[in-house]
Amino acid sequence: MVELVVIGTMALDSIETPFGKVKDAFGGSACYASIAASFFSKPGILSIIGKDFPKEHIKFLQKRGIDTRGITIGDKTFRWQGYYEFDMNEAKTLKTELNSLESYKVEMPEDYKKSKYVFLANIDPELQLDVINSIEKPEIIVMDTMNFWIQHKREQLIKTIKKADVLVLNDGEARQLFKTPNLVRAANEALKLVSKAVIIKKGEHGALLFTDNRHFNAPGYPLENIKDPTGCGDCFGGAFAGYLAKTKDLSESNMRKAVVYGSVIASHNAEGFSIERLQNIGHSDIEKRYNEFRDMREF
Amino acid sequence: MVELVVIGTMALDSIETPFGKVKDAFGGSACYASIAASFFSKPGILSIIGKDFPKEHIKFLQKRGIDTRGITIGDKTFRWQGYYEFDMNEAKTLKTELNSLESYKVEMPEDYKKSKYVFLANIDPELQLDVINSIEKPEIIVMDTMNFWIQHKREQLIKTIKKADVLVLNDGEARQLFKTPNLVRAANEALKLVSKAVIIKKGEHGALLFTDNRHFNAPGYPLENIKDPTGCGDCFGGAFAGYLAKTKDLSESNMRKAVVYGSVIASHNAEGFSIERLQNIGHSDIEKRYNEFRDMREF
């Protein structure tokens, strides 16, 4: 039984950072998010790949308990090529080949529709809306997005956000979407659209959780060796949603814990290229870092 | 008896932000820092002003219990003119008139030399070093600096840092001084120079405290209305040092509290132009916000 439906992209990424490079590596928002979620619950993925997508990656997802029946097989896999400069805060895109993603229509296995938890990782907001409309009785819909959709599909994006319970976006996107440099104002605007909460991811500076009455400020983990930040935002959102699906507790205080688990998985992910680190961490690594997060904010 | 010696600039600032402007307003690193420190202990100021400096400002300092005997009267007061754009993270300098600051020699009242606590606010590192060398038995020397000295007096700056116990600098300065984009690496380099701790201020993103074995990550306060960030870094450092001078406890856990008090005073300061807010807050405002800092960290 799928506990968390995750829609997003599956990609082959070619990435260069000051610390190395990879070509056609396993990536995409749905992959990072579902792997991150799989540390806490059983995700089912909705996405499209091409015939060129290595079977070992699908096997890896399955080995992690991820339901892959919702993956459509198209012609050619979506490819992204980008690089990071020394500050590592922003990915620079060199090339995007949408390929099969361009004509993707969600094909949802019937039993996914009974899932209570949904994570809409970054993908076209119209596809995200299709998923929302197909889930029978969602308990919570968490959604992410990115600057591309804010720029090119603003209206559809807002329409989708209005159906979500928790909006997750990064600081630059929050400023862009709500046309203010002030993150508190952006969050207050966002809270008018969603039913529950807004999370603003700030990379190395941590994450902010805003609900109607409270504010939670999660620290960033002090990483000395960041190799590749690709997918950190997706890992954050996937782990956040996965933890909620596991605990079935949607209180503000439990969302705070979910934010920290999101930060824990994202910080591990940044320490390797592609999904390298996610392949090698286990529950003890996660709990250890969770406790470090506690320690570094005690006063 | 002066409990904390503060050296820095006294200035007349002309500032424009998207939310208003002021001309020849009370400012300077020593003013902000000593006012912030005065909420916790009794500072004595070392600086220079001109004959044009309004007497009411000196009276205000005295009213706050700040010892002003260490203020030298020169010819014309140091003036800074700058502006902030919408993101408010970085001051853009339009004009700097050093005036009397150019030929300033520290004139320290004899009894200041017995002070145990020292805060070296931003000013020429050679003047900071003069102060260090004049204090008989310092318990702790906290020092701040800025990009100008990193660029123009690097060697003298490093020499001064080596005599300090706690270095306070902002994220951009940390990256510039230690030639790395990674703040953890910058902090580790800085820890080789100072005896106790390094604090990296990150504006709205909070502050990081690094000691040899531990890391503290203080949140930024979620301000919806930032009017003028001028002096926030000085307030942070002054309040930090003032709290240590008050509590006489130099443990890592007490430094964490001092960092939060620094953030509390800095966040209040950003809510008004010049020292407007600092004139109007009291202990209950400080404690209230200190508790909010606690609440927004809990998980």
CATH superfamily name of chain A?
A: Ribokinase
The CATH class of chain A, by name, is Alpha Beta
Q: What is the name of the CATH architecture of chain A?
A: 3-Layer(aba) Sandwich
Query: Whole-number radius of gyration of chain A?
Result: 17 Å
Q: What shape does the CA trace of chain A take?
A: globular
What's the number of helices of chain A? 11
Which whole number gives the mean pLDDT of chain A? Answer: 96
Describe this structure in words.
The structure is a homodimer of 299-residue chains. The model of chain A has no long low-confidence stretch (mean pLDDT 96). Chain A contains eleven helices and 13 strands. In chain A, the strands form two sheets. A nine-stranded mixed β-sheet of chain A has the order 5-4-1-8-9-10-11-12-13, sandwiched between helices. A four-stranded mixed β-sheet of chain A has the order 3-2-6-7. The first copy, chain A, is globular and about 50 Å long. With 299 residues, chain A is α/β, with parallel strands linked by helices. In chain A, helix 8 (232-247) runs antiparallel to helix 9 (252-269) and helix 9 crosses helix 11. The first copy, chain A, has one domain (4-295): Ribokinase (UDP-N-acetylmuramoyl-L-alanine:D-glutamate ligase), CATH 3.40.1190. In chain A, a hairpin with a 4-residue loop joins strand 12 (207-210) and strand 13 (215-218). Helices cover 37% and strands 23% of the residues of chain A. Chain A binds chain B through residues 86-88, 181-185, 188, 202, 204-206, 208, 214-220, 222-224, 226, 253, 256-257, 259-260, 293-299, and chain B through 86-88, 181-185, 188, 202, 204-206, 208, 214-220, 222-224, 226, 253, 256-257, 259-260, 293-299.
